[in-house]
């Protein structure tokens, strides 16, 4: 168990969706969610944080440091792939991947990620992520935020996935809806706190003036996709989809 291994030290669990499966040992039909005991453990151990690594349906790219795994996936799916050795110290494999609603495995991955978001009890210990680009491109974040903040939209999406997952996943029984404050926490405040960046993720004295303004819209995906204004360190960098400035960035370090 993590708490025994780490002896009470703080630890971050990365893209946990990819590590939360049950069954499936040479039997695709037994594949399912292993979230329940894991989230119970997570909720009970306040020294742990996590990011989910949500899978979203559509086309993306899989990137892994395990080139052999990429080769296996390419052989299994028939898609082209590329590998590269890095000074003989490691390697990587890259290949396209398409997550489909009617794929049993893909539907389970989608449902398992959402189950984590909806059953973990402390948004301050969760960072919204898709393990970019492996689960989905980061530009899909507005869609994910809508799945968390709009129960009706989530149920409409659930109705389209593989029927076996609809029957067996706990997702159908979860009615939790993220508030705007909780969405702000998992996308901004919590990641900044986890990374040790006291000047990020809030609007208090001493904070960087990184501010996004949205126009209220019942369609959360549309609202989060098109902010009215975006400020970076107090500079207006985007307005209604138009780039206004491209200031130089800087490397961030824990304070």
Mean pLDDT: 92
- What's the tally of helices? 9
What's the alpha carbon Rg, rounded to whole Å? 19 Å
How much of the sequence lies in strands comes to 15-25%
What is the rounded distance between the termini? 29 Å
Number of separate structural domains: 3
Q: Name the poorly predicted regions.
A: none
State the helical fraction: 25-40%
Task: Supply the helix-strand structural class.
Answer: alpha+beta
- Number of distinct beta strands: 12
Sum up the overall morphology in one term. Answer: globular
Query: In what order do the strands lie side by side in the largest sheet?
Result: 9-10-11-12
Order of helices and strands: HEEEHEEHEEHEHHHHEHEEE
The major pleated sheet works out as:
4 strands, antiparallel
């Amino acid at each position: 168990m993590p708490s025994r291994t780490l002896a009470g030290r703080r630890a971050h669990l990365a893209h946990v969706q990819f590590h939360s499966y049950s069954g499936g040992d040479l039997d695709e039909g037994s594949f399912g969610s292993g979230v329940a005991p894991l989230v119970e453990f997570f909720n009970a151990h306040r020294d742990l944080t996590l990011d989910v690594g949500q899978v979203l349906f559509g086309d993306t790219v899989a990137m892994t440091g395990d080139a052999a795994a990429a080769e296996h996936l390419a052989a299994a799916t028939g898609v082209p792939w590329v590998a590269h050795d890095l000074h003989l110290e490691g390697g990587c494999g890259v290949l396209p991947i398409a997550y489909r609603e009617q794929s049993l495995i893909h539907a389970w991955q989608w449902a398992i990620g959402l189950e984590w978001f909806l059953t973990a009890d402390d948004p301050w210990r969760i960072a919204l992520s898709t393990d970019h680009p492996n689960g989905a491109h980061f530009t899909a974040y507005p869609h994910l935020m809508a799945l968390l903040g709009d129960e009706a939209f989530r149920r409409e999406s659930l109705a389209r996935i593989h029927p076996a997952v609809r029957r067996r996943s706990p997702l159908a029984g979860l009615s939790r809806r993220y508030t705007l404050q909780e969405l702000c926490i998992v996308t901004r405040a919590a990641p900044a706190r986890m990374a040790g960046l006291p000047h990020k993720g809030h609007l208090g004295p001493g904070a960087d003036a990184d501010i996004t303004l949205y126009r209220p819209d019942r369609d959360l995906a549309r609202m989060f996709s098109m902010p009215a204004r975006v400020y970076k360190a107090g500079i207006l960098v985007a307005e209604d989809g138009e780039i206004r400035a491209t200031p130089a960035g800087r490397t961030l370090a824990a304070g």
